[in-house]
Fold each of these.
Amino acid sequence: MEQFIYYLKVSFKGIKRAPLPYALTIFILSVGLGVFFANATFYYQLNRDPLPHKSDKLFFPMLNLVPYECSTDCKTPSVLSYNNVEKLSQTDIPTQAAAMYSADGYLRQSTEQAPLPVSIRITQRDFFSLFDVPVLHGSIWPDNSARHEVILTKSSAEKLFGRTNVIGEKLLLDDRNVTVAAVLDTWQMLPRLYDANNQNHLSDTDDIYLPLETGYDMNYLSNTQSQTFDDTDYRQLSTQGRTGALHQLQYWVQLDTPAQQQRYWQFMANLVQDEKAAGRHPSAPNNQLVAMRNIVSYFGGESSDIKAFALVTLLFLLVCLFNASHLSLNRYLSNQYEFSLRRALGASRSQLQLQMLADVLLMAIFTIIGALITGFAGIKLMNQLLPANSLFSNWDLPLLLSLLVIAFVCSYLVTLYPSLRASFGTLNQQLKE
Amino acid sequence: MSFYMLCKVLFSRKVVTGLLLLQLAMTLALLLNSILLAQQTHQQLSQPTGLDLDNILLVQLKPTTASLRVYPALEDLLNRQLDAVQAIPGVIAAAYSNQSPIAQGGNNGNIFVVEQQERTNVPSVPMYFVSKDFFKVLGSQVLQGELPQHSVSLDAPGTPDVVLTQSLAQKLFGSASAPGQQVSRGRVAAVISDFYGQRSGSHVMYNNMQVAPPYGVDWGYSILLRSQPQHTTAVRQQLDSALRNVEPNIEIYNIRTLAEQHQRLYRNEYGLATLLALLSGLMLLVTMVSSYSSTHFHALKRQQEIGIKRALGASKKIIFIELLTENWLCTALGSVLGVFLALLLNHALAQVISIPALSGYLPLVAITVLLLCVTVATWYPATIATRVSPATATKAL
Amino acid sequence: MITLTNLSKIFRTELIETHALREVNLQVEEGEFAALTGPSGSGKSTLLNILGTLESFDSGDYLLDGKSINGLSDSALSKLRNEKIGFIFQGFNLIKDYSIFDNIELPLRYRGLKPAERKQRIEHALELVGLHARRHYFPSQLSGGQQQRVAIARAIAGKPRILLADEPTGNLDSLMARQVMELLEQINQQGCTILMVTHDPDQARRAGRNIQIIDGQLHDSTLYEPLSAQSA
Ligand SMILES: Nc1ncnc2c1ncn2[C@@H]1O[C@H](COP(=O)(O)OP(=O)(O)OP(=O)(O)O)[C@@H](O)[C@H]1O
Ligand SMILES: [Mg+2]
């Protein structure tokens, strides 16, 4: 230990002898790593799997059950109609299933209060178990039938009532009476893969939850995507919306085993076949069963700017690494005489390597501090410039740890080559120089 | 001083020179692509919109009580709000619309000439349901036919007449006259000058308007108004209270000029271009540091050599130029490499974002910038290096 | 050809002032071979450096070919140095990563001579020092005596009128030293003025003139008989 402290002291002396190149090396490494960190954070958070144990078991079935005969663009609609979902639900193959969409509404306790704008997820009972949503108080709706019961998130309960245990409390949702059936615990599914159309997976979770049937009864229209393929009047959601070709639903089924998936796939094929035979849906079949794991790329919602930037920041990091090693090579070369002298005085190679390690350690510490500061600033800046991704700017432990490792490796690389050169070059030649 | 000698010096320091070259090349590649992206964003932002962006204000809002969102209460609310807005001094015209122009997407659908759907179908054409002053607010010119003078309810029998933008009319009818013809959404009444509708539509200038109160306002609606240029700021400040005086149960999402709306629409591109520009700046800085340090160390290591050269009759100027030329040569070599790298990067970027291809004079501009930075960075250490005293440097150890 | 009048040089550091040269007066004629002797630190190298315009001086005057060098710009001094003066250093001072040929070529390049002329002069100089066969070697591949001969070749390739040599044999054994001396004498006979610092009394004696410096002051410059006359 005493020996290592001595090595650290020597390192410090080396820095003091040429502080400017050392500072520049640290600066360049910090900037390169910081910029890389900032983008890596977004890249990692955007591409992470929020349900790793399940994301290959949850599927979004899509069908060409539409009243038109497509001629050119036969893409399956990315949302389903109420009618589609009804037909898809007529099987017990999936372990669980839930249809859903979201709408905007206003919530208050009484008409005297100012309304609170809320985003409503209109869905079915299984939603909460499909996506592992924790319940804090109360219980989820027992079935999928219409009921004027809402489920609040913890934060909306706190906003409305100032407390969380509000089961049975009455509320006005767009001036209609509802009661609180349950309050959810803090929950954030990032990215929100169940809602990946139009890059909605980047948004925050919704504020309240309402049964699907009630949503249709109350005539809530989707606030993200709704398409009509016939003359359904979208103001008559509770009647025409349930039968016509008004598409606005996402539908998720859980299929645990390959056999289950195979059976469901067959079920979909039969369904479309029957519908076509009955003359209701003239389009060619084009069934899709997309796993949650692949849903973002299926909808083409990958954040291309982050990807582009990832490429560029990687290049930048490389440049900075080159530059820093260049700088530190120069630094070593100017210290070479001393290095050789040490060897001439009998320092063994392994002792010199330990000395190098001390150098690396010191550099890594400075670099990590610098990189974290730059990275933090970079993230703040990117949030300003690309606000769509702002939910994905958090550092978690595995991310932070891997960043630290990268920083250490970079410091090592930057010190490695020059010091190897300095310690393994022929003694004679160096002393002569 | 000769090229041959310089090359010899450069290549005698293989590793250092290699690192420097690679770095210069990467910097150039990045610089070039950032410039490209910035150029593209600038082009997108300056592409004509057909609108007087600075003097048209846009309010997006929604009634917070369900009873105000159904007719006839809704129409009454819309008209009262328009009256109130029009009464603000400096307002030339005001109109409501189910959605605003200059948007990413919104309410749209396909449109075609009746009985010629196969041939004339145009998908994703925005449909605007507007009050009659909408055209006056936008400053549209009537090119064919006459604008509808009265608002007709969409629920009344028969559909309200349709107004098309010029590009859309041309797409549907070619050079034939449009007014009087039947399209899927109704009879064409007029054709007006183009304006920017929805970015995700078939074409940003394809738009279709009907003078009618919107179907519903579940997604909110817009109030657009044109003000006299000198009053725009004042009008903007009064809008919020004017609208709340009419009806307090509303949520106002935002009040913006169309110029701001336009900028928000391209915010992502703008953000990416800014980030890349910043990164290029950082890269230039890093390159400058490296030019600086390489000259500095190089000169330090070669003090004796410089001293000898001075003793043999090289003036300070020659030494200085020699050092500069060394870096210029390096930059030039790096630049050649860099242009290749830039092409590669451009290709890779084109896979994930839309970026124009590399062309023409841009590499020259980028190389000039790079050379300039390298020169600035080399200047100081090179000047220092020339101050080596030949007498001291040539002293035997 | 060289005239120094009341020339003084003071080195100032933070701590002390060193009077390296005090009121030196010196006259050197064309074609002379002068040896500079004196104890260590007496100012020999300083004098040589001033003569070679590598160093400035504090007072007095230095006339080269009747023209004062006072107030000449850096580039004018460089030109003068390049054209009229050749240097031979104790430490050889060859550039390590230049070949022998390139080393000798350097001053000719600064003078802006044409490639053909450069080549001819280099070859001539190399032949004179007997190293023609090794012109593509690098300094590290030569012995000390050979390196010094390269340095001499570099100094004379430009046909300077004055050759300034600071202990040219200081790092060499006596055999090598003699070879170098003979070379210098040969060059002197071709009309080149030589000023040489040396510690070796034999060498000093072989020179036509002996200038002694003690503590920055020029002592009587003793004139010896020309070498040839002495041996006769
Ligand atoms: N650059 C300098 N800065 C300060 N003092 C100097 C410098 N160069 C020489 N001196 C001092 O000037 C004096 C003369 O030095 P000079 O090198 O001329 O001696 P010298 O006669 O050549 O000695 P030697 O025979 O040992 O080479 C010495 O006292 C020396 O310390
Ligand atoms: Mg001396």
Amino acid sequence: MRLGLLRDIGGEALASVGARPGRLLLGILGTLVGIGALVMTTGLGQTASGQLASRFDEVAATHAEVEPATASGADGTERAVATLPDDSLARVSGLAGVTAAALLAPIDLDGRTIATVPLVDPSRPPSTPPAVVAASGDLLGAVGGRLQRGRMFDSGHEQRHDRVVVLGAAAAESLGVTSIDARPTLFIGGHAYAVIGILAASETRRSLESSVILPLATARAEFPGVTASTLALGVELGAGALVAHQAPIALAPSLPEVYSVSAPGEPSTFQTGLQGDLDLVFLAIGLITLLAGALGIAGTTLGGVTERTGEIGLRRALGATRGEIAGQFVAESAAVGVLGGLMGSAAGVFVVVGVSAAQGWTPVLDLALAFGAVGVGGLVGLLAGLLPSHRAARIEPAEALRTTAT
Amino acid sequence: MTGTDALIELRGVTRSFSTGGRTLEVLRGVDLTVARGDFVAITGSSGAGKSTMLNILGLLDRPTAGEYLFDGRPTAGLDDRERSGVRGGGVGFVFQSFHLLSARTVLENVLLAFVYGETGERPLPAGERRARAEEALRRVGLGSRLHAHPGTLSGGERQRVAIARAICTRPRLLLADEPTGNLDRQNSDGVLALIDELNADGLTVVVITHDDTVAGRAHRHQVLEAGRLG
Ligand SMILES: Nc1ncnc2c1ncn2[C@@H]1O[C@H](COP(=O)(O)OP(=O)(O)OP(=O)(O)O)[C@@H](O)[C@H]1O
Ligand SMILES: [Mg+2]
């Protein structure tokens, strides 16, 4: 009997909801907007991070870094167990799948200053100088770099030990170099270097964007003890594993395990952090709208209870228990919530797909999310119906029939 | 006096309402026994407490004091579910102001009676419900108006829909509160003839009325006055 009754009351709820399209629309609206905002936020978030991930995957799949393996010394410090040979570039350039190679060596300034003027005012507080890196080979190709202005130094500069530098964009800004048209000069430890280019970005080594980069051969002539620490490689798509296997052998045929090969580091945490903040804002907007939607459903259902006092009295006269009256009103508001959730979810998916199409992204959306949102709508409606249904159940039938007699 | 024939019995029933600190004693000790198959008319001046008494008979309200037995069983100890069960399965109501749902068709309004109050029995299959609803509507002369909406019916037709809704579950007791109060002479006569007919088929009827013609049709006629039946 219970199952049949449940079906009957569900049917009564649906029929009653359908009989008042105005109220229905009013009730649906808040849930629709709230659920829509939630689905849209989550969907766009997923799509954007999917976008980020696929870009990152692509970068990771086409670049590699070779570094000497390290071992813990007796005092607990990590030490490299090998060095990268001077002819590293020549050794790997012939390997199948390698599209670019560059050696990178950090430079210890050892107290030297970096400035755009020859004499530094000693009374001025010293600012932390940008990092200095020496590089050799096809740096742009090996780190996914892009120039903003000027040019990269080449093998000619290296052979002549020319004093030239390329500035990372952030380093250029902090040094006050905005253009290279006027042939700006950079003084490193009192020696003048010509700034010939500005590096806009580096996909695998963001630190280069805030560094001063000079030719490795020049650095070796100027600074003592310059040692290449990283061999950056550009790799053909799909050749990563092959290169990872062959590069160490090319560098040290008898002892390849002294080198480790890795994919470049994680995508910038700055970007993902920002994404997280935006998600939070939209999530908050969605939740607030949803709350407003819940209040909307509660309000319209409560209004319905008052409006339908006579109907409640009649149903009680026909044998409805208090619980069955309450059940009907909860079912009605849950149905409104489900409808709002359904429409909101559809609208959210529509926006995600639309925005993705406009941006040329691949829309990424958890199906569970789209369906879960409908469930959330139902739950919101159900919760919103609790108070009104309690009110409806408490209405005295004799009173209800007496006050609604016309 | 409690014969096995008594379907309902009021014993010293009182009902008072408290409003704004004042207590209004409407029923002051009502005794009434209605045998199975009886047809009782209750009259009395406006505000005498006729509807109050009928609400108690229909288990829509509880007495302040006194006893009410339905089918020989005291009702004081029944909970909401049991009282609702008696209403749904044993009592049919007809109100002066029809109480039809305007958004539903005639047939749907009658079918509403089957949604609740199937106490313990097997639920009626949908086909059986529909057959009984149509049969009740044919009986009240509305077999051809199944899919009409109440708004398109005359007052007399609406009241006949309400009667069909009250009898389609085959209750033992029909309670009618001024069933002809909103109807003209001709329509009243139709409704009255119908109630007569249902009573002749064995239905126990208690009808409240201002109308002497209605009272004249009943087997018994009692007047509610000063909170008591005379
Ligand atoms: N819930 C209530 N609260 C307060 N007073 C009530 C309530 N129900 C009924 N009354 C009062 O009880 C008295 C009897 O009401 P009732 O509706 O039973 O009269 P009636 O005999 O049916 O009158 P009528 O012929 O006008 O329908 C009236 O004075 C009415 O105001
Ligand atoms: Mg009355």
Amino acid sequence: MEARKKAASFLTYLLLAVSFVLFVFPFFLMLVNSFKNNGEILESPFSLPHSLDFGRFAEVIDKMNFFVSFRNTVVITFLSVLFIGIFAAMTAYYMVRRPTKFNNGLFALMVASMIIPFQSIMIPLIYIYGAKLHWIDAAPIPLLIILYIGFGSALSIFMYHGFVKSIPYELEEASLLDGCTRPQTFFKIVLPMLAPTSVTIAILNVLWIWNDYLLPSLVLTKEQDFTMPIKMKVFNGTYMNNWELLIPALLLTILPVLVAYLFGQRYIIRGVSQGAIK
Amino acid sequence: MKKTLALFLVFLMAVSLTACGGSNESGSSASGSPEAGSKDGKVSIIITNGKGEIATQWEQAAKDFMAANPDIEVEAISQAVGDTVNLLDKLTASGKTVTMAMMAPDSIVNKYKDFGVDLSGEKWNADTVYGVKDASGKVAGFPFSIEGFGLVYNKSVVEKATGGTFDPYSINTRDKLKALFDKIQASGVKYPVAYQTENWSVANHYSTQFLNQAEDPSTIVEQLKAGTFDLASNPVWNGYYDTMDLLASPQYNKYGERPLGKYYDDAHLSVGKGESAILFNGNWAFDSLKAVSGESFGFIPVPVDNNPDNPLNNKIAAGPTNILVINKAATPAEQDAAKKFLNWIVYDQKGQDFLVNQAQIVSAFKNNPNKVTNPLGAAIAEAVQAGKTLPFSSNYVKVEDWGNILAPDIQKYIAKKESRTDLAKVIENYFKTQK
Amino acid sequence: MITEKSRLKSLGNQLFFTGPTIIFFALAVLIPFAYGLYLTLTDMTSPINPIKFSGFGNYKTAFMDTAFWESMWLTVEFVVATVLIINILGFILAFLVTSGVRMQNFFRTSLFTPNLIGGLILGYIWQFIFVQTLPSIGDKLGIEWLRLGWLGDEHLAFWAIVIVTIWQSAGYMMIIFVAGLINVPKDVMEASTIDGANAWQRLRNVTLPLMVPSFVVTVFLTLKNAFMVYDVNYSLTAGGPYGSTTMVSMHVVQKAFSENIYGVGQAEAIMLFVIVAVITGLQVYFSKKMEVAA
């Protein structure tokens, strides 16, 4: 039995190590190439850099207007993810607990909406919020957040929907019998139990919004509103990209997300153990 | 129920608060920036730039221009490279009037044929021959950049093979080109050619060259549309594909065994480092070449046959590749302000400096005293000076169609999956569907 | 399940729980989509031109566009090639990183890094691998079929897109599976262990049924992503060689935004939407029935 366990754990590590190498090498390549110039990157992307010169990072921070674009990205991502999470959890919960025709229809509609090719609503979005309502000029960042909440709710509701089903109804019943209203019950009983799912959904939403280029490129027109993916575009060329700046820029952009995910992990574990105590 | 309502109100407030916070913020920072500080009597214009790589220089140019013209407010916007929606379309759809837009020369007879104002009365027409005409024959496009394409060669590799200084215009027949390849091979370079086959290169650039057999390439386009031009029996059309066969042949081409397959970076790397000597591309190739090499480069004309007196064999295709067009829908005051900007580029010292020294663009104007430092750009500028240029043939076709619709067939031809007669039919049929 | 006594209260709850979502959803998706539908009935060549009503002409052109159906068929092949592998691989990875090995947080984080690195850099790195690295390995080891660049051969180029897609998506799906696996109650697992079930039986009888909600989501997402594939297609092969790897999204984008027949492109996008909506709709409908309610 012991030997089998050991063999199993060895196999697990082996598989993880292999996938680790396969999955992480592009990240490793980026790390390595962020210290090289264009010639070295083109000639031998796999070689190690000659020196650890942080000069290009400084240049990138300057050219990307890093602190402004970083702040914009944080504000947009944080608010969008927060509201998507809360609204989607509420809606999914209600849809599961109250499967009326209307709610089922709404659910189907939202699932279907995820399949809409984004390219087919690009022009309508610009037209409605630019030419007709002028929100693109008046309040681009709030508009962007509104759009993210709208686009993001479908997938999040879809994911919550399955998980809400697996929450025992007895707990809610008790709370309702105690005289709590339904919203109170939701926030006191259900939402905490959805914590692990919420963190996962938040992570997926952060991954999407943090790196998204298309939507901000349509809505944001002024320098001071730009997010990091938009600012990164200054390093692209029609025939030749400025890799020596593009790669450090990308690295600076994704590092915060990686760090946040490592922290998020801890929260998942804690959320689960709390759920177990109940 | 009260609590429910309260909670909902909190949500609404939270939403509206963030909305307020956001708009205040952008509002306050906007008022600090120059464009919001415009007073009455000032003209505000929007000018767009289609070359993402000169975005910084474009903005600087706008600032310098505004310093010289305090009564004009310029918003300079650049297209990001690789965007799906074209900047002009995007801004127009969002309700803005772009005063002056940069576009490809073929656009003013195709996609944006009703967009531009007549510029034929402008002073700068006296200093250039490259003004681009719209369908009615009036100059509507200000030639912003001159670019050219041909056989890009690595000087030191070729000079080592030929021994001594090399005159690229001495290669004026296909046989001489073949002989050059043999010499380069003999000097120890296994594959003289690194033939990259990107769709825009083989279709828009290479495959439109046959149009230059007529003084005015558009006459051939008209014949093709009318179905009266027979490609398969046309010696010039065939001649360019004979030369292409030579460039792509396994004997000389680094990728001869599998001639297709995303070799752009690798080809420039090879020629830059001197592992190969020649590739087919335009002056923009230097962006890639300079990354790996301090070498010098030049252009050899693409030979079409073995007649050394054929002008096609002695000239390089070069012409305007980006034009500035002023919007009919803009107010007269805005149009005048945009015209001022064009004059500033041509006649103001700072404007001339912006175009050539800062943006490294070959100027279409005789009076610009500056010279680009990039050797391929310089070669184009010299060819322009010496009158050794043919029209930039892709300007006479719809470049998007060639890149998307016709390029696959041309690539099939290169991969030997389609015969030349079939290719001729495909191109002829395409033109018959064009109005 | 919910039985509100008063109708007013029920309406209040409905508004409270679904109201905000409906408002935002309508603003971002429903209204623009409706307008987009209207645009398919116009003869818009580019977004800049004035709009003229043209009836169903665009749909007729789109139906007759053989290149659209060819790219659609290729996309179906692509869907078949990717959906199964991504789900299996994602599940195995999730299983490994929740098995209690040390450093599992580190592994979880690292396995989704491919997803963070956008299409452009990804395309460049993989182009280098397919055009230069693999051929040079083939050359050195004398492996004939590896000797030439992958992206110049229509079959190899197709598989190159498949490989990169799997590699990019498996980690993402892993995150969703991890959430599902964590939700499997420990006591149920322990009980079945005490009952004498072996690892395989536990997986089949306990874990997999409880993982259905995750699979509903991942299969849906992989189906949808595969049908809509664009970024990897564009940055890796750009449809080449000779247009043989042009998937349907790329075809639609070319029609709408580069060949200047916006209305037709828009109509093809709607057709794509309907086809994929039917397929994924069936998938969600049937797999939702397998979910176990506690």
